[in-house]
Amino acid sequence: MGIAVLLKQVPDTTAKISVSGDRVDETAVSKWSMSPYDEYALEAALQLKEAGGGDIVAITCGPIRATKMLTDAAAVGVDNLILIQDEGVTDSTHVQSLLAAAVKRSGSDVVLCGKQAADTNGGSTGPGVSHLIGAACVGMISEVYAEGDGFIALRASPTGNERVEVSRPCLFTFDKGATELRRPNVRGIMMAKKKQIETVTSDDLGVAIGTSSVSLQSHSPPPVKPPGQKFEGADSVPVVVAKLRDEANVI
Amino acid sequence: MDVTIIAETTVDGLHPVTSQLVGAAIAIGGTPTVLCPGGLGTTAAASISGVSKVIGVEGDCFNTFDSGAWATALNPLVSDGVIIAASAPSGREVAAQIAAMRGIPIIQDATGLEAGITVTRGIYSGKAIEISTVTAPCAITLRANAFDAAGGGGSAVVSTVNQSADVAVAVREAIAKASERLDVAEADIIISGGRGMGDPANFSHLNDIADMIGAAVGASRAAVDTWGEIPHGMQVGQTGKTVTPSLYIAVGISGAIQHLAGMRTSKYIVAINKDPDAPIFGVADYGIVATWEAALPALKEELGKL
Amino acid sequence: MAYEALDFYDIDSLLTDEERMVRDMVRDWVDEKILPNIEKACHDGVFPDEWRVDLGEMGILGAPLEGYGCPGLSYIAYGLICQELERGDSGVRSFASVQGSLAMYPIWDFGSEEQKNHYLPKMTTGEWIGCFGLTEPDYGSNPGDMITRAEDKGDYYLLNGAKMWITNGTIADLAVVWAKLDGVIRGFIVEKDDPGFTAPEMTGKHSLKASVTSELVFQDCKIPKDRMLPHVKGLKGPFSCLNNARYGISWGAVGAAQSCFSSAREYALSRIQFDHPIASFQLVQNKLAWMLREITKAQLLAYHLGKKKDEGTWIPEHISLAKMNNVDIALDVARMARDIHGANGILDEYPVMRHMANLESVKTYEGTHDIHNLILGRYITGIQAFTRES
Q1: Complex ipTM
Q2: Under an 8 A CB cutoff, do C349 and B239 touch?
Q3: B264 touches chain C (CB under 8 A)
Q4: Contact A138/B169, CB-based, under 8 Å?
Q5: For residue C286, what are the β-bridge partners?
Q6: Which CATH number, 3.40.50.920, 3.20.20.80, 3.40.50.620, 3.30.1360.20, labels domain A2-205?
Q7: How far apart are alpha carbons C100 and C78 in whole angstroms?
């Protein structure tokens, strides 16, 4: 069995995001990390491998800097590393086609990824790739284990959680997992250093990237919050709750 | 322009966010057709003002959530214009699958939509705003409560279609929501108490509210140090957890610099304190000068109405 | 907030990927395991056993040693490990320094093949803890006049004497002890259950509270003949260990200083007095600028010394300069950071007072500040000034 895990390198969630000239300034990002939900997917992939064997291939679509993240993945036990060099593709359909082609080529029959990336906050990649590779999709799971030829996964449901079964080929997207990504050790780091990263282009994968009907207009910093407002007495609670819902949009 | 809306449904029928999807569709000049997966909520959908057609899509596949099967069943009924769904777990997944099936772009979790089509959404967890334009055909999911809902009083034609697909996911066991409390380090909403709560037993009021809104309960160091009943794991601040939830509600917390260090980067801060000069009001977006005894019951009541 | 280490001159860009990965691994571990627990460990006066297990699992004990299961990392990587550990607490770095540089290193460099095979694999995994016995109650800066003696009794050696200020002593499975055999300093491996050996813990410290400090007492302690390190005689043995440990300290001090700087900067930006953050006042900015200046210089010293260690072009005096300077400025940075924090600086909410108290020990252990000046003085003038005799 081959396990594929789709990873994305994003600005660390604690990093400051600054905008200059209508675009997020990536050069100002102080730290790049593996997207947090992808970390849970990777840990689950490592556990699947430990329990049932099979090689893990980590696939990312991104610029050269993402090789660091792939090496980090190798340090905790990923066997094969693939970097799909993107030429600045932002359209979700293009990213999905590239990832799906790489997954197919790897021959993996189980794919794991985060439910969404911490930069674009999209969440289309997993379901989209599952369709393109003809795999069942189970979203928002927190754990998965193999049973027979298939898998049992724990996912959120409207009334709590549910354990679902699914057969191969299948794709899981991870919400917060039950176990954090393991820490590497020096031995893993030494091995990772020697691991080759296979760099491929859309041509190598036989994917034609057409023009996109999505065009990015601008990035901007979030609107400045109004200065704090102070209310007298408990009678003001309904006003504050209404503001939390309509103004702040947090409840 | 044809807009196909995939209704968000619950076990009881139509989720109210569906009216907001309709409102947004009309605002960009769309003619909305609402698809109700599983045939749920068709009557309610038909009564939303501005809806032109409602199609109840009935099939066995809708008994279990399998985004691939749902998308396969719904896809033939989708028109070539714009697909709109709610930015909820199921809506996002189904819309993404349909977009992949049709080879059209999808933009998730929009907070603004203008004719054209111009889409506004938060990226980097809200640390920046992205504005992009897209032309039909495309799919867009919308964040709940970010759009004005269409009114009632509509009388759209309702039809029913039998359309199912092979389901690849089988539910083996349903597990009721765990009652264990969320960790402050992970929660999106936190309600914290300080020594102003007077007695650790009064934290039960915070627990009640936390249960209602899926929040974690935190505490200031003063509360943790004073009362053995409040474990260190709940402590927010310099030597406790550093948290950045969307909403932080500080109750009876004066706001010592060490506490502020742990929570000041929360997206929104509500402070409830009887002392109008408490430093916590300096970082609060919404401050309520009141005792917790007066404010918490009112808060509970208001949140219950949501 | 995630910790952002001060790196004004972008030392980061000089590191290899492997060095960065090791550094990040240790940094994450310190964030996750040390910082949330260090105050309790200090309060209880213990070095939690879990930390030993983790250090072993990460595979960083005896970092620059090769073979016998040891990591074989560069000296730069070893320095970075020390820097990150001491950013957490000097006691944690001390544990790793003693294990790697003072206990494993002499066995690795001066031990027999049997000794290396027997001890090193279990020490690099942290399964066995080592300590290092050189200093005695009456002989600190002047170890050459040590009292501890070994006698050859035919079938065994008999040790008598006492060592003091021994990090890890009470929790150690073995001690590398320096004692005079027929007037010549030799190294001996003493195991915890050897008859006549005890290692009582020293208590009442106001510094390095999360580190175990002990006496080693030998009363007719019998050890087998194969426990002497065969390949070294004289002070060269302990001094070569100390060179490695002092090298690590020069990096560790940078970590402690970075931690104090980071806390002071954050505090100064958030503390409002006279309606403005105190960071906006010139006297506070002057302090922060001084801290940045000194830490940056210390980083450059440590990095360049690391390069020389990796190339093998160093001399002991290089290490003396770096150890002395970096600990000295780290202590001053800690005191200044304490000052910027005002009264809050004495609280366990902030790391500064703990680092300050720790660094007072670091300043005088592994060669006092003054002794390192004398080492440099001898280098400059050719005249030793340690003793009255020439």
Answers
A1: 0.93
A2: yes
A3: yes
A4: yes
A5: none
A6: 3.40.50.620
A7: 10
pTM to 2 decimal places: 0.91
Q: Which of C2, C4, C18 sits opposite A189 (nearest CB)?
A: C18
Longest Cα separation, chain A: 67
Domain limits at B289?
Answer: 189-305
Q: Give kind and range of the element (H or E) at residue A245.
A: helix A237-246
Give yes or no for A27 touching B (CB within 8 A): no
Q: Smallest CA–CA separation between A197 and chain C, in Å?
A: 14
Tell me the residue type at C369. H
- Number of structural domains in chain B: 2
Who's near B111: CB < 8 A, 6+ residues apart? A249, B120, B121, B122, B142, B143, B146
* Interface contact flag, B258 C344, Cβ < 8 Å: yes
CB contact A169 to B (< 8 Å): no
- Please indicate, yes or no, whether residues B27 and B149 belong to a single structural domain of this protein: yes
Partner chains of C (3+ C-beta pairs under 8 Å):
A, B
**Does the pLDDT at position C1 exceed 60?**
no
Decide if pLDDT at C108 tops 90. Answer: yes
Closest CA of chain B from C292, distance in Å: 22
Q: Is residue B299 part of a domain?
A: yes
What residues does each domain of chain A span?
A: 2-205
Whole-angstrom Cα distance, residue A159 to residue B193? 29
In chain B, which residues have pLDDT < 50? none
Q: Which residues of C touch A192 (CB under 8 A)?
A: 21
Nearest Cα to Cα of residue A200 among A120, A119, A105: A105
pLDDT digits (tens, 9 = 90+) for C175-193: 999 999 999 999 999 999 9
Distance, in Å, from the CA atom of B15 to the CA atom of B35, rounded to the nearest integer, reads 13
Query: Do strands A160-166 and A150-157 pair parallel, antiparallel, or not at all (unpaired)?
Result: antiparallel
**List of chain B residues whose C-beta atoms are within 8 Å of the C-beta of residue A170:** 168
Q: What is the 3-state secondary structure (H, E, C) of B91-146?
A: HHHHHHHHHHHHCCCEEEEEEEEECCCEEEEEEHHHCEEEEEEECCCEEEEECCCC
